[in-house]
Amino acid sequence: MEDAQKKANLGLAPIANSVVIVMFAPLAGWVSDRIGSRLLCTTGAVCIVTAQFFIASLDLDATALRVMVPLALTGLGWAMFNSPNQSAILGSVPKDKIGAASGMTVTTGRIGGASGIAFAAAIFTYGLAAAGLSQEQIESPQAWSAAPDIFLKNFNHTIHFINFFTLLSVFFSAVRGGKQPAHS
User: Which of 57, 109, 50 is closest to 74 using CA atoms?
Assistant: First the structure.
């Protein structure tokens, strides 16, 4: 019974991210309208880097809380980054180009997300193959329970590797230009 409860709790863990985003994104948008987006975007990116570090440090004995806290921190970071960033982008283009700019941000976001997932999957798969797992073992979720340490170690390494690129978002958020007046 305890194992079933643990699985149920871990099944609910991913909603921590979404709940925090829903709660804080409107507030972040409101604050960015008053103070600008640079500080919020940079702080949000730092939250995401920190959360990913904690996610990459999870082990096989991680509790639901140890999973939920970094996911909630990721949600906070995303809320602090995304709304102000979108506002800054759309506020920097002429009004007659807002639709095109909005479409471009969504398109680049989707392409970036899909590329990032493919890149992370390639790194993860390479690590599993380098650890000696066969293609059949890599593709079979049932095999994962036979070698959980190998899968977790490669998951952690993959997150740390990807986190390097997330650090770049901190840098670029911190050095980007100030608030530009909206074009007419």
Answer: 50
